[in-house]
């Protein structure tokens, strides 16, 4: 069981991290809200590894790390923080942090990575401690051998026992390397393979008993399929032509690390991070070298996918037609699309970045508070109409669709959304409304009687409107017939065939003019109407009629 101390000033994150790590069954997690409380736990509990946040109120994670390392304590220390600035990473590594892990992203992957770093750190620390103790034992043995050389010569049996102890110590050292989590191998000064651990067996499929003792760049075959110098050969001979196969090369004078692409990882290409170091004898002479290899293929693929995702996001933002924006929690603009900048008449984002959205863009800055208050009720707004202003102060109307976005702790981090210029749309709607009102006035004041009908899906023709002239000409109040079928409203029209004619016009769009005779109860001709029927939209018609009785009677005489 690995015992872990986690220091963070956020109680919720302490609880979540403790829950995740202890759920694996590998860890016991002690939590502290401050550095001072963390030191108290370190003094009272056996701790194997420390995890610390960076930004905390009393002492930050770097100060904690420096204080801890000043005690000459080499236990693994992991800085687990939401702050991702490069200078913090550099300071953490320079101050002795074993790993630096940034909060955020996929939660499951984040805590899995954290658990992996703890395991690796503890495993490495324990291995180093065991190596240190073995080294101390070896030094003590050597000193003892030197001090009692004459006595050992006289006592061959005692000497044999000491040699056996030395062999066992070296064997333990070999076992430690064998169980390191990273693929590791070692060679002597002549390039003969001395160690080939289990991790490299699993990575390459090549067994130790087939590799140990081999020379002539045999260790390159599992990765490149041919005998060629690789990173470990830098340590022994500094071969310059190896560089073309490596990138991101770093060196501190002794150790060298780099990334490379292996074409022959069990038939599948692999991207790897490698580090090679020299091996020294007691005279500080280089007697060999050791190299560790870590598969980072998935990590690189994730980085590439993230890069593509960011490029796609950037392309969408740069090409979106509506004005996209994002503000921080204080209401300042932190991101905007080129279309947003153009919408407000600015030349570049630099003119408005980090400026107050209310003061810079709203025609009435106080209206933004009203806008945010509405959004708090449901978390978003859609097509909310707001009066804004351009750079030169010109006001114009926009439709705003926005929502809150949140940080990793679930707190509101700001607002994002789009602005759409609807001034032209609103003007068109106003003009259309005025035209409709003008047309309605013409219809209502026309001397012709006018009825409007709608043909329903079940073939019923329903009266939907009329004008004042229709009431006057017919001498009835037509309001009472609205919503009725033509047959129910005007049953006398059945004999004339007008209902069928009207339905035909509604379906075909044909214009029909017809003369309709109206007779009195005694059978005498009472009135004559001229009716003009035409389609005004799909399945909707208008019927214009006027009394031509006088004209018709005059013509017949």
UniProtKB/TrEMBL annotation:
EC code(s) of this entry: 2.7.13.3
Span of domain PAS: 169-222, 309-346
Residue ranges constituting the PAC domain according to the UniProt record: 256-308, 382-434
Keywords: Coiled coil, Kinase, Phosphoprotein, Transferase
Molecular function via GO: protein histidine kinase activity
Family matches, as Pfam families: PAS, PAS_8, Response_reg
One GO BP annotation of this record: regulation of DNA-templated transcription
Coiled-coil portions: 128-162
Modified residues (4-aspartylphosphate): 53
Known catalytic reactions: ATP + protein L-histidine = ADP + protein N-phospho-L-histidine
Classification via InterPro entries: CheY-like_superfamily (IPR011006), PAS (IPR000014), PAS-assoc_C (IPR000700), PAS-like_dom_sf (IPR035965), PAS_fold (IPR013767), Sensor_kinase/Photoreceptor (IPR052162), Sig_transdc_resp-reg_receiver (IPR001789)
Chain ranges of the Response regulatory domain: 3-118
Protein name (Swiss-Prot/TrEMBL): histidine kinase
Natural source organism: Methanospirillum purgamenti
